Amino acid sequence: MDLLRGHAPCLANPVDARLVRKRILVLGSNFAGFTAALTLKRLLGAAHDVVVVSQNDEFTFTPALVRVLFGLRDRTHLGFAVRPAFDRAGVVFKQMPVTRIELGEKYILTAVGREDYDYLLIATGAVSDFDTVKGLHPKDGHNHSIMTWDEAHRARAAFDELILKPGPVVVGVVQGGWHFSVAYELALGLAGALQRRGLGRRVPLTFVTPEPYLGHFGVDGVNTSRQTIEKLFHEAGIEAIVNCSVKEVAPEQVLLDDGRSLPSAFSLLIPAMRGVDVVRRCRDIVDAHGFVNVDHGYQTLLYQEVFATGSAVATGASSGVPVPRGVPKSGYFAEESARVAAYNIAASINGARHVHLSPIEIDAKGIVDAAIGPDLHVEPKSEPTRALAAVVPGLNGHWANTAYMRYFSKRTKDP
Ligand SMILES: Cc1cc2nc3c(=O)[nH]c(=O)nc-3n(C[C@H](O)[C@H](O)[C@H](O)COP(=O)(O)OP(=O)(O)OC[C@H]3O[C@@H](n4cnc5c(N)ncnc54)[C@H](O)[C@@H]3O)c2cc1C
């Protein structure tokens, strides 16, 4: 991150540090929490304690979940154990769910007791909000999901059944959602997988999205994303419904708010998201969806010692549009906002100035990979300054994604 390059003013002053040893608690250990904890330790050294509390001891590389649907990834390929990297860095790792956060009293509760903090960094991400659409929950509804390993694994089994008993497919994002690039990967990947099995013509594929046009990505498009995706969808025979609001996922059909009914033997609609329950309960720092309100230094407005990063952060939503949609929060944003927050915590401890970097200024780099079949390679940036560096149909995106996944895994495991 350019903003922090060449800056190391936060290294602890050893004299002061001995006098006022601080305890920094990081909640969560994926893109944001993992990055933040290691950055904090690098900036603060042995003078202060960095403790991570997370319910999961595995780093999950979420982009790979799409590939689980197509049988291209199993659980062993999805992530790695975080503890070894934390041990090497001198970060204390405690695997347990956080059950309560007492902001006023500066402690959190877990199943085994209380953890006090001087500084708190919330990096607990976001979870699916299946409640916004009837029948959307994969457990008791009629939709499939790939937002977690278990869901993706079950969706994979259902997709195998579809191959044996072909029928119409509905895929996309429901209103309020933001995982547009994931939905494009799914739609194009499904089209490719069906075509290769000779089922292309027998399985009509409909894509639904709250975006006002294809390739909008929730950021008003990136370069030629609209034309490219429209062309790919046309070639793949995917019918798209934009500005779409889903009313219910029912057995064998998806009902839209405009009264239309889409026949569906296999529905895979990505939900809207919300903050995790324990954070949602901190009512004075979160928005209506349970995301933490922060300034551009990722510090909460009410508690100077409390910061939040990654998908746990409130970045606003679309307003004045026919169908509400979320603002995408990428893994890259999680890492970059985590570095800024870590820097600012270290700066607070050492009396240095904070840095600020808004979500809009953080370049979001991503690869839309249609797995096998028609595919894309995109590198979108954020908001008006976002520019799509490349949209490359062909196998390039697939190999770029595979290479990136290997690079990311190696770099993160062994920072
Ligand atoms: C299917 C899918 C595909 C995606 N593809 C891409 C992509 O291609 N490119 C991209 O940039 N982004 C992608 N994303 C988005 C990306 O996954 C998120 O931006 C990223 O995971 C956010 O990181 P985070 O660390 O903020 O939150 P998360 O990754 O959600 O991590 C949250 C952490 O908090 C912990 N936690 C949660 N609740 C508690 C609790 N109560 N107590 C203790 N710990 C808790 C969890 O165990 C976890 O360690 C994808 C997401 C999905 C679901």
Protein described:
By secondary structure, the protein is of the alpha/beta class. The longest helix has 20 residues, at 331-350. Mean pLDDT is 86; it is low at 370-399. α6 packs parallel to α7 (225-236). The chain contains ten helices and 19 strands. A hairpin with a 2-residue loop joins β14 (246-250) and β15. The strands form six sheets. A five-stranded parallel beta sheet has the order 5-2-1-9-19, covered by helices on one side. A four-stranded parallel beta sheet has the order 13-12-11-17. A three-stranded antiparallel beta sheet has the order 6-7-8, with no helix packed on it. It is elongated. Bound molecules: flavin-adenine dinucleotide. Flavin-adenine dinucleotide binds at residues 27-33, 53-56, 62-63, 65-66, 97-98, 123-125, 146-147, 179, 182, 276, 278, 310-312, 329-332, 334, 366.
What would you say about this model in short?
This protein has 415 residues and is of the alpha/beta class. It contains ten helices and 19 strands. It has a five-stranded parallel sheet with strand order 5-2-1-9-19, with helices on one face. Strands 13-12-11-17 form a four-stranded parallel sheet.
